[in-house]
Amino acid sequence: MKINRINNLNSVYYSKNNAKSEHSGSVKYESNSNVLSHQLNSLAYANKYMTALSFKGALDSEEKNFKLNLNFDELKRRTSPDNFAAYTLIDESNDAYKKLSQGDKTALKHLVKAAKILEEVYLMQDNPHNIEFKNYLEEQTLKGNEQARLTLQLFNAQKGINAKDIEGGSVNLARGIEPKLQRGFYPEDLTEDEFHNILILMIKKNKISEVKKILNQRTMVERDGKYLKATDYTDYFKEQFVNAATELELAALTSSNDDFNRYLILQANALMMNNPYMDALADKKWAKLQDTPLEFTITRESYDDRMTPSVNKNKKLSAMLKKLGITPYAKDNIGVRVGIVNKEGTEYLLKIKDYMPLMADNMPFKEEYEQNITQNDNKQTMVDVEMVDMTGQLGAYRGAISLASNLPNNDKLSVISGGGKRNVYHIQMREAKYADNITKKLDAILNKSQHKYFDTQALHDFTILHENVHSLGPKNGTEKLGIYKNTIEENKADMGALVMLDVLTKNGFYTPLQQKKLLVSYFSAYVQKGPDFSNAHRLRNIMQNNFFIKEGALSVDDNGIMTVNFEKVTPAANKMLKQIIRLQLDGTQKDAQEYIKQNAVWSDELDKIAHNIKQADSTLNARIVSPLADKLAVQ
Q1: Dist CA 118 CA 466 (whole Å)
Q2: Where are the domains of the chain?
């Protein structure tokens, strides 16, 4: 494909040397579209990605000898086939890959390379020691150190030093390095109280613009004397972002779909400009993509940073920020998805699209807020994807992993300024999640009379409902819930899914039998092997299951066997959904904390179920295996 000029691109005009928005005449920038001048960077990357890497802030691993935290026997146990599950993505034999044009295959290679590059960014965001620790493990593995080799397997699976396993236990791979509120976004020695006091001091010294940058989603924060200073991702990670942008532009040269290529160019430009408006342009374009052969997403989600939202706990600081009109946004982690769109699966997803306005109309208190979906404006696209690669936050297995996503999130400029959303579903992830031990697990936890209702397709249907409900409910204002915002949002998506299941059944989209299958499958899949209160998704499971038990929608006998009481599920889900929406509308971080504390109880019933699951399934950790991506990355 020849890329010289792209016209009418979301009101952006692109040429070989520059681009500007007709809505923002002051936005002028240099594009990275002179691809030939970056060929050496691109060609060098294959070797770079396979060897020890040097990054800003990373020490030479020879300067530091880490102490491995897990002994050899524990590592062997955790990495044994029975305990270390594999989520295997597609290889060269996949039909979707074989049917791609040669140009799309070449483009896919560059998209994979971009994904590998951006994983480096995530590792630095997650923990300041991740890179040097990984280098250390690789060096020790080459020297024949078996303890290091097995530790490296777990590191690559959880993509970092610290994580939780499926049972909720801590998996800390390096002795003396514990997870912190600030992850890698803030100075490692910064405490919560000091952070708050520095911000108060900076406000008093009229450093308002810098405070706003510090509390922004897309900055890394460092010390600056007695103050703090923020650096935009595009500057802090400039090497990685420029290299990734180059790969995207190379992909746009050979990809067969003009619409997709326009998105790639916009995304490349966004990676190189300290300007959130460029991210918004790329996000808006991505959210409109529906009929493209390839899929590439840079997910920017804020599940891990707990330092930034902590300002909501400080009444003095919170009042000062509110007076200045500054909203604190948790930092975005970088994740990347690469795949091939499955047309048949996508057609199935799109069946629900016409019902989205009906779903929006059935949300509680709908008159009190703006939704992303309205009767006249259904800005929602959705695709089913054969997964080639998942890197960064998206590919990190930490007790669970993503089956789908609905992006961009509501805090992004593209959504705030009227852009739409896009659901992407991960075929290989959902197939692998329920491939093994299902019968054994059902025998261990579910009333035998209800086994006939369990169905993996129903689980996919529930995921579809869950993701679409993320586009419903209050569009704005949930940042005030602080560190609990994500837990409440995931809680809303699940309860909304159950309520909308009943709405759609009454309107003929699902049959009563399908409704029962979804309910039984949902409850069977979303009980867990142990308490994990650190993860938004797993915490909401505890809240919901405990709530349903109290409401009589779920019964658990003395042996830990569940029975779903169908007639009580929808009333209970509707009750909880109303409570959640009121929290999103009127609540504070303290209110959300109290609500979670009230419901997130690891009860005797949940403990009995967990005991049974452990007897049926010994899995502790899991990893992504990406054979096609690994091959393409070194071509």
Answers
A1: 28
A2: 438-616
